[in-house]
Amino acid sequence: RRAAALSGSAGPGRTSDGHAVALLANIGDVEDAVAAAAQDVEGVGLFRTEFVFLSSSSAPTVEEQAEIYRRVLAPFGSRRVVVRTLDAGADKPLAFADLGPEENPALGRRGLRLSAERPDLLDAQLQALAIATRETGADVRVMAPMVATAEEADWFARRVREHGLPKAGVMVEVPGAALRSRHVLAGMDFASIGTNDLSQYAMAADRMQGALSELLDPWQPAVLDLVAATCAGGAATGTPVGVCGEAAGDPLLALVLVGLGVSSLSMAPSKVPMVRLALSRHALTDCQRIATAVLGARTAAAARAVCLEEAVAEV
Ligand code: PEP
Ligand code: MG
């Protein structure tokens, strides 16, 4: 038992029977990168690049961006770094990418939709990433936020590859993309589920409204069904699926996600040790059994209770 606890305390994430689950960090700037790289994480699963530019009044140049990306990538050496292209709009407005007022910003021209209207911004970012990748030799993977359709995914992947960047992925945070994931993910190198926005859009509940937290709970059965649908699409197309929303840092929910087929979890670095420990105490088949039981629950509270019951029974 002591050996099991110790084996769960460091090194790559894995279940008790050795199934690998990459444990990654969410970061928002150079400082986060330096701090996360010093932790026991296998790399970065979500670099929110828009965070770097929240106070910039004009668009950063290619050289300015390349310098920042170098400083983010270098500390991770050969560990993977998943970089999300600008997710501007709604809760993360950028002054230099403002397309004017909208009635419903969360449903508006944000994320990849904004990149489609301002391809100059996307191209500058991809060019800067290509420079920083070449210079650091980092394992960079680029992903798009707020993808809704297969056409959008294809358009993004083409642009990423045109810049010589080797890996293109999409965030799955729009229910339509989750439901059609076998088509959206075809041709992509990876996908990452953003449970924060996926919950917001699945439950029609503004993520900025604290009063709606029950609806925004990632244990909501409808959200878990969408995660399961995405994993099925990933399995059908041979595309690895990760999770980089808040849900990934919940040790119990992590068991469910792994049971559904998720192969990487990205979270605040402080949450990694508990998730690592939870995984180390359960075999993949336990996680699969837990996931099946959880998907049968009628409510978020019941889903959580069923998971706890099953997980504790197995430790
Ligand atoms: C998400 O939506 O779950 C996500 C990881 O991205 P963000 O929170 O930055 O929208
Ligand atoms: Mg999001």
Automatic annotation (TrEMBL):
A GO CC term attached to the entry: cytoplasm
Keywords, alphabetical: Cytoplasm, Kinase, Magnesium, Metal-binding, Phosphotransferase system, Pyruvate, Sugar transport, Transferase, Transport
| Function description | General (non sugar-specific) component of the phosphoenolpyruvate-dependent sugar phosphotransferase system (sugar PTS). This major carbohydrate active-transport system catalyzes the phosphorylation of incoming sugar substrates concomitantly with their translocation across the cell membrane. Enzyme I transfers the phosphoryl group from phosphoenolpyruvate (PEP) to the phosphoryl carrier protein (HPr).
Which parts of the sequence belong to the PEP-utilising enzyme C-terminal domain? 13-281
Decide whether keyword Amino-acid biosynthesis is in the record.
no
Q: Which residues form the active site?
A: 244 (proton donor)
List the GO molecular function terms.
kinase activity; metal ion binding; phosphoenolpyruvate-protein phosphotransferase activity
What are the binding positions for Mg(2+) in this chain?
Answer: 173, 197
Catalysed reaction(s)? L-histidyl-[protein] + phosphoenolpyruvate = N(pros)-phospho-L-histidyl-[protein] + pyruvate
EC class, as a word, reads transferase
What does the record list as GO biological process?
phosphoenolpyruvate-dependent sugar phosphotransferase system
Task: Please list the residues that bind phosphoenolpyruvate.
Answer: 48, 84, 196-197, 207
Keyword Thylakoid applies = no
What is its cofactor?
A: Mg(2+)
What is the protein name given in its UniProt record?
Phosphoenolpyruvate-protein phosphotransferase
List its EC numbers: 2.7.3.9
Cellular location(s): Cytoplasm
Protein family (similarity comment): Belongs to the PEP-utilizing enzyme family.
